[in-house]
Task: structure prediction
Amino acid sequence: MLPNDADPSGDKKIGGSQEWLLWVHLNEYVKLKDEQIMRMRFRDNLLYATLVAFGGIVSYMMSELGKSSEPSHYLYYTFLILPWICLILGWTYLVNDEKISAIGRYIRLTVTEKLGPLVEQQSELLLGWEIAHRDDKWRKPRKFFQFVVDELTFVASGLAALGIFLVMRPESWSSILLSVVIVEGVLLALLGIWIFIYADLRKGR
Result:
């Protein structure tokens, strides 16, 4: 019987029934896994959304460049859009990735501790997959590679767009334009730092 199919109703008291507590904690586990899966799907789609956005903007620029032998400098302002895309989608990606890790950590350290006494088992032996998938020998290289991919997708690509804009920059600079470039560069650097902080390269429980 699935935990959310159980019926704890009746004359059982909330505080005095192990069966009731077991039902509560198992349902908490099910709801947490549902949220974790939903966030995983949303997070992974953000990578594709970033690639699509980049492809669309670059395609637009290439088509406009092909129409004129002397394109306007204002066309290169399009490159200032790309860092904002990286920042918005990258931060949303990072927030969801952190919540996914936080849910897994809560399940491993808290839910198992609650369930252990109720089923008379050591907490380390419960919900084994939550630990097993973090304990294989390739976890650190895999997570490090994912960290590199995230940095390239959301940080390096945005900085590259800024670099191209600086090379193709208009002859005259305004204080507003200079401020935009500086703010984008600083925010991209901060995003890169936060991606490093939440990389979660650790193994085991």
